[in-house]
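Dear Dr. H.,

I hope your travels went smoothly. While you were away I took the liberty of generating a structure for the chain from your last submission, since the lab meeting agenda had it listed for discussion. I wanted you to have the full record in hand beforehand rather than looking at slides cold. The sequence, exactly as received, is reproduced here:
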Amino acid sequence: PTSGPSLVFITLPSIFNTMTFGPFWSALFFLLLILAALTSTISLHEVLTAYLHEERGLSRKRAAWIVTISTALLACASSLSLGAWGEFKILGLNIFDSLDFVTANILLPLGGLLTSIFAGWVLDRKILHAEVSEHGSMKCRLFGLLVMLLRYVCPALLLWIFLYNLGLFRL
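The corresponding predicted structure, in token form, is as follows:
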């Protein structure tokens, strides 16, 4: 196995078992993996909670519960798709692989593309400069280069990555 759950839960534990103090390193690795997962979950949780609270008018508590329950249901479905629900397929992929594909190959490149377009073309340059320079407390000698990259280079590269990941563009 070269990636995904097999790497983390099968290959790495086998490697840890061959090491000196293997159980210690294995426990430390999985503890840090849990910490990384929790911190990522909290940061993503906050974005959805804030959206539901600020834009949809839900109380913060209700918004947080909706996001928490939705996340838990998706996590259970993803986990079960690696076992009991393995036969259920979405375009030939189980739930876990479908969510992984959509996230890694569609949402991340598309989010980066839209962010670079927004920062390069829509956002007022004064606001962008204030953010990059800590409101003028830091020098930003390459600001023009940054704007050029955000307007032209980053969108082109991210569009290529997006199309390449979808199999619509090959070298």
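Two observations you may find useful: The chain has a mean pLDDT of 90. The first helix runs from residue 4 to 18.

With kind regards,
E. W.
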